[in-house]
Design brief:
Distance between the termini: 22 Å
Number of strands: 0
Strand content: under 5%
Largest sheet: none
Order of helices and strands: HHH
Low-confidence stretches: none
Structural class: mainly alpha
Number of helices: 3
Number of domains: 1
Helix content: over 70%
Mean pLDDT: 95
Shape: elongated
Length: about 80
C-alpha cells in the first residue's frame, strides 16, 4: 500500500469513527450487551462470557479503525518529511 492509499484509508476510517450513526450503534450495542450481562443469573457464566466477548468484539472494530487512522497519520508524516 502506498502512503497516499494509507492516507485515504485513514480519512475514510476517521469518517466512520466520527459518524453519528456509527457512534450511536456502538453505544447502543455496548449498552444493550451490558444490560443483558447484568441481568444474567449467577449460574449463567457462559452467557456472561459470551456477552462480554461480543462487547470486546465491537471494541476491536473501533480499535482497528483507530489503527488505520494512526497509520495514515504516519504515512502523512513520511510524505511531509520527504517533501520538507
Amino acid at each position: 500500500m502506498t502512503p497516499q492509499q494509507a492516507i485515504e484509508r485513514a480519512r475514510y476510517a476517521q469518517g466512520v469513527l466520527d459518524d453519528d450513526l456509527f457512534k450511536e450503534a456502538v453505544a447502543k450495542a455496548h449498552e444493550r450487551l451490558l444490560q443483558d450481562w447484568a441481568s444474567t443469573r449467577p449460574e449463567e457464566t457462559v452467557r456472561r462470557e459470551t456477552l462480554w466477548a461480543e462487547r470486546a468484539g465491537i471494541e476491536r472494530i473501533a480499535a482497528y479503525l483507530r489503527s488505520v487512522v494512526a497509520d495514515g497519520a504516519m504515512a502523512a508524516s513520511v510524505i511531509a518529511n520527504k517533501q520538507g
